[in-house]
Specification:
Layout (H helix, E strand, L loop, with lengths): L3 E13 L5 E13 L3 E5 L6 H7 L8 E10 L2 E2 L5 H7 L5 E4 L13 H12 L5 H14 L16 H12 L6 E5 L7 H16 L5 E5 L3 H7 L2 E6 L2 E7 H6 L4 H6 L53 E2 L5 E2 L5 H15 L1
Parallel strand pairs: 3-8, 3-9, 6-7, 7-8
Antiparallel strand pairs: 1-2, 1-4, 4-5, 9-10, 10-12, 11-12
Helix pairs in contact: 3-4, 5-6
The protein binds adenosine-5'-triphosphate and magnesium ion (MG).
Amino acid sequence: MGKVMLEVNDLTTKYITRYNEDVYAVDHVSLQVEEGKTLGIAGESGCGKSTLALSLMGYYFPPLYYTGGEIIIDGRSISGMKPDDVRRTILGTEIAYIPQAAMNALNPTRRVINFIEDVILAHDPTENKKFIYELARASFETLGLPPEVLQKYPVELSGGMKQRTVIAVSVILRPKVLIADEPSSALDVTSQKMVIKMLKNLMETGFIKSMIFITHELPLLYNVTDDIMVMYAGQIVERASAREAVFDPLHPYSKGLMGSIIVPESGLRDVKLTAIPGAPPNLKNPPAGCRFAERCKYVRAECRYTNVALYDAGPGRAYRCILSEKVLRDCYEHERAIAA
Ligand SMILES: Nc1ncnc2c1ncn2[C@@H]1O[C@H](COP(=O)(O)OP(=O)(O)OP(=O)(O)O)[C@@H](O)[C@H]1O
Ligand SMILES: [Mg+2]
């Protein structure tokens, strides 16, 4: 096993809305990412992927609140640190986050170099601008971006270039963990390929040491990640290697999400995560028992009241369902036989 870059134990966070309602968006999430590895996070809209990403940085501000759990980056726990200390000593260097739709949220009145100054000065306010410029230029060169981009305003860049710039700015301090939330979703196919190539390159050149990758595109999830975690209604419902999660999912939700029958490799082209009939529960008031019970084809009476744990299913593999692996596989096999 490689060195663990990110370890998260039982992390729980919630939103408190302006009507004073709690939204339990991240519920007892535990995970590990080793050096050189990419962990994918999958799950339908609203399941808590972005909230988890945000929560992993240990930097909380209303309406998001930390309620429990531990985050350890490269052996150092950051839980309980003051927000100011997190901003100064953790963000950018230990862990960096590319928010969903970040490229569309850039302040249009500032140049790219100004964004880089922000990241570096937040970490060390004494750094001088000439040094920052030199560092930025060298990084952009290594990452295959023209240094002229540094002097441009966001509006002067194409979508693909804007997104690659956002990534370059995020990793300028060479973080140990990079969290990329839907980094290529809004882009055309060519730009998407370039962004993915850049992310892979960041790992190969050692710019980042590990990555968490959130996407709705199944082929990307499979091609970019080593392991996959499937989330449902704020909880992890399955954790497996990318191959197992995509081609041999155990949890009925993962099974539905990955499409009922996927032909290996070639069949993955252009496949999006599948829509499952029904809607997830309201996270203000999650149901007792299995949260997926309402939509599950294989639901049993006890699913609705049993608090289901995440069961260990071999190395690196776990799933949250009271049915045994054998029963689940028999169900899937039966369905496949009927469909054939
Ligand atoms: N600022 C907020 N205040 C209250 N609830 C919120 C807030 N932001 C998100 N939520 C709720 O938290 C839950 C998780 O949202 P989140 O954005 O993390 O989902 P997601 O998996 O990233 O979805 P998507 O795939 O659409 O990006 C949802 O029920 C959402 O409505
Ligand atoms: Mg999101």
